[in-house]
Amino acid sequence: MIDLIQNRRRFFQQVTGGIGTIAMADLFARNGYGAEVKKPHFAPKAKRVIFLFQEGAPSQMDLFDPKPELRKWHGKPLPPSMTKDLKLAFIKPTAAALGSPRTFQKYGQSGMDLCDLLPHTASIADDLCFARSMQSDQFNHHPGQLLLFTGHNQPGRPSMGSWALYGLGSESENLPGFVVLSSGVGTSGGTDNFASGFLPSSYAGTMLRNSGDPILYLTNPKGISAETQRARLDAIRDMNTMAQARTGDAEINARIHSYELAFRMQSSAPELLDFTKESKATLDSYGIGQEATNAYGTNCLLARRMMERGVRFVMLMHASWDHHSGINQNLPKQTKTTDQPAAALIKDLKQRGMLDDTLVVWAGEFGRTPMSEMRRPEDAEGAGRDHNPNGYTIWLAGGGVKAGQAIGKTDDFGLNIVEDKIHINDLQATILHLLGFDHTRLTYRFMGREFRLTDVHGEVVKKILA
To answer: Based on C-alpha coordinates, what's the Rg of the chain?
Structure first.
């Protein structure tokens, strides 16, 4: 009897790895782990997304939405009828107006208004759709960024990139399906902006560095060969598979997937960062090698290269747009950093025939006020702008977007929306629509109910669609 029990135990110990592996493979296939592509609800216009996140909130009336009337009110409070119920982060509604010193011209056949700080964006004006009537519910950075990327102002929800990966799966064998690149100084939302929330952790964004090891400790220590590393991972996988068979914990599968992906990235990631096969003209167009544009340009070029390699969603987080003071001195620094690379990305995708099915979004978490913020009253040149979620501008390109147009309108001061309000949830619904999803049906059951990116709000903005 004892021999029978021992033999039975040995049998299950021997076959657990095989049975567990089969079960795990099936689970991976059903949940989108690895390079497995899922079917959207309908034929998508966009297969992948590059989100150029301008953290800190760029000033719309200094870049994309000229307000000549604001100059006439420079130094004076705006009409009380417009500001009496206004909620602001740092200044009072009675703060003096701050006219923009920027000059604007119309560009392209579409006649888009762009300021003098954006000559490269001006060259792609006809490829862009400007949404000038964006509206957020949040006027502070962290909750504003959470709302933008997760549809909610509190942590714990999946990011937009996680939802895209959950819905479509990944086409890449050797790179994560959702990748995050950063530049500038800090970001208020941090990892909450690209976390998977209550989705399995395999759907979270993976932060890559643009020099050295893309991920810290990706390279094996000296003396550890690929064969040794493979044998070690096989042993870990076998133990994790047995643990998963005992517990049924889906996060163990996510851990196995992460280990396997990291092993494949040891050979694929260095190739991703190798720009030697890119032409000098391409590198120059992105501003690589130039002090001002090198970091952001490198990230934009990496985004294009990752799109070519099957990555589903790339988020570029560029900080340093939070201009509460010295906006007339600091804004030119950020446009010098980002204008050329962003335009080069659109041109590069278009030249390679990739823009038609790649959606590019350029956006901050909200906009800025037409009123002045003076953090140093003694510094007459140090004026900045406070947070304004009530009406601001973003742009979109490619992937089913109707280009060469501006949607929506704010009042003469750029304070409030007067035409075609587009809420953050509407933008999210539109992005999911372009990826082939009915945003009300892309759901995940958690804590007894079905959740979605837009949760209980949001409508597709049909004017954005081609």
So the answer is: 24
